[in-house]
Specification:
Helices cover 41% and strands 18% of the residues. The chain is α+β, with helices and mostly antiparallel strands.
Length: 153
């Protein structure tokens, strides 16, 4: 799909993007132009295929789509895996912005720096079980790493 259509994948059938069975391409493209600018998605045009974007810009496109609709819960699994440092910072800022808006955020990550940068509370799983719960300000990466390796309370 194009960037424009990727940005409405979960809302394409709702107004203003559709009226009955008619797709409103003008509204889709206008929405895409706004999100591309707001989320700094680097693309030649909104008609470019999403698969032709760099990994970081694909990630920003998904963040733009998901964060531009009303949400109460965000589950982000490995939200910055394999992307460049600039995109990591941008995605972290968007997650923090949603948190500051009072949204519930669940981050699933093996990156301890990411967990500590984004979390208020940390739950550690090992072998399918929660083995520890800590407030981010009251623990260390070393302690969390030990729990990740199988240490129990």
């Amino acid at each position: 799909y194009s960037v424009a259509h990727n940005l409405v994948l979960n809302t394409y059938y709702l107004p203003p993007f559709a009226q009955n069975a008619t797709i409103n391409e003008r509204a889709i493209n206008s929405h895409a132009e706004e999100l591309v600018a707001k989320f700094d998605v680097r693309t030649p045009t909104v008609q470019t295929l999403g698969s032709n974007l760099s990994g970081g810009n694909q990630q920003k496109m998904v963040v733009a789509r998901e964060f531009s609709r009303p949400i109460q819960l965000l589950i982000a699994a490995q939200p910055t895996r394999g992307i460049d440092v600039g995109s990591i910072e941008f995605i972290h800022e968007q997650i923090v912005r949603k948190r500051d808006e009072g949204k519930t955020i669940l981050i699933v990550s093996t990156e301890l720096d990411e967990i500590f940068a984004l979390s208020d509370r940390i739950l550690v799983m090992y072998d399918g079980q929660i083995v520890a719960e800590r407030l981010a300000g009251e623990t260390t990466p070393t302690e969390i790493g030990l729990f990740m390796a199988g240490r129990t309370e």
